[in-house]
Amino acid sequence: MTEIRPVTEAKAVKVPHLPDAQTVTEVKHWTDRLFSFRCTRPASLRFRSGEFVMIGLMGDPDPNTGKQKPLLRAYSIASPSWDEELEFYSIKVQDGPLTSRLQHIQVGDEIILRPKPVGTLVHDALLPGKRIWFFATGTGFAPFASLLRDPQTYADYDEVIITHTCREVGELTYGKELIDSIRQDELLAELIGEGFHEKLRYYPTTTREQSPKMGRITDLMRDGTAFRDLGVEPIHRETDRAMVCGNLAFNLEIKQMLEDYGLREGANSQPAEYVVEKAFLD
Ligand code: A2P
């Protein structure tokens, strides 16, 4: 039977689009504090794994003028540069100006994405080395979700160690599933190898809920536990490179530790042995 629609419904209604709009294609809620989402990628957007972009939503209308301004924050791109979509991993802050609203986005909604990727957590900012450490706390895992899926990471290093410290076990799930997906990916699995020869090492720890490995990564390195568990020598300037992304206190503490091991901070313009970026907190 042919469905007859009223003429008014068939008319194309022009919906005003957000500036630099991208469409949400998937949303996953990991805990009551964490979610991730995917969205369309502008055809012209090129980025290096580990970089961030400004994303957000339209803010509330100004009570005096009624005008709306975009509400944007820096988010690391969690997807690799070869992915046709973009992925982001975010905290939910109940009174956070952006994330209090962003956490409610659904498939088909639009977000604003300024297509100007920047950042220091890029391979170009490091001198060649044998082993790379990715140190993350909380949503600081995001840039590494990109770098861990970048074939260059495994081409450049013999060993890739990702540490992730979170308060609770559930906050590790996004990272754990990502690591599992890499090991199951045909192309990446071939690059990382298998068993004893596997290049990728994953070291998750929790601080406020019981898990197989408890404690802050900084303390576990200071007393030697992390190096013993991983069966590697302590960090050394000749061989080791590091990228850090977490909360401010963590970044400052591990930065000092890396300096004490003899590593120097690098930048795009002057590559060295480690780089740091602050994880976004609304
Ligand atoms: P802790 O529970 O001992 O504070 P947050 O969710 O607050 O960003 O924290 C994420 C993780 O980072 C938590 O497990 C927290 O441990 C840890 N953390 C916070 N500060 C530091 C620090 N200075 N060094 C190492 N880990 C830290």
From TrEMBL:
<keyword id="KW-0274">FAD</keyword>
<dbReference type="InterPro" id="IPR039261">
    <property type="entry name" value="FNR_nucleotide-bd"/>
</dbReference>
<dbReference type="InterPro" id="IPR051930">
    <property type="entry name" value="FNR_type-1"/>
</dbReference>
<dbReference type="InterPro" id="IPR017938">
    <property type="entry name" value="Riboflavin_synthase-like_b-brl"/>
</dbReference>
<dbReference type="Pfam" id="PF00175">
    <property type="entry name" value="NAD_binding_1"/>
</dbReference>
<dbReference type="GO" id="GO:0004324">
    <property type="term" value="F:ferredoxin-NADP+ reductase activity"/>
</dbReference>
<keyword id="KW-0547">Nucleotide-binding</keyword>
<dbReference type="InterPro" id="IPR033892">
    <property type="entry name" value="FNR_bac"/>
</dbReference>
<protein>
    <recommendedName>
        <fullName>ferredoxin--NADP(+) reductase</fullName>
        <ecNumber>1.18.1.2</ecNumber>
    </recommendedName>
</protein>
<dbReference type="InterPro" id="IPR017927">
    <property type="entry name" value="FAD-bd_FR_type"/>
</dbReference>
<dbReference type="GO" id="GO:0034599">
    <property type="term" value="P:cellular response to oxidative stress"/>
</dbReference>
<keyword id="KW-0521">NADP</keyword>
<keyword id="KW-0285">Flavoprotein</keyword>
<feature type="domain" description="FAD-binding FR-type">
    <location>
        <begin position="17"/>
        <end position="124"/>
    </location>
</feature>
<dbReference type="GO" id="GO:0042167">
    <property type="term" value="P:heme catabolic process"/>
</dbReference>
<dbReference type="InterPro" id="IPR001433">
    <property type="entry name" value="OxRdtase_FAD/NAD-bd"/>
</dbReference>
<dbReference type="GO" id="GO:0000166">
    <property type="term" value="F:nucleotide binding"/>
</dbReference>
<comment type="similarity">
    <text>Belongs to the ferredoxin--NADP reductase type 1 family.</text>
</comment>
<keyword id="KW-0560">Oxidoreductase</keyword>
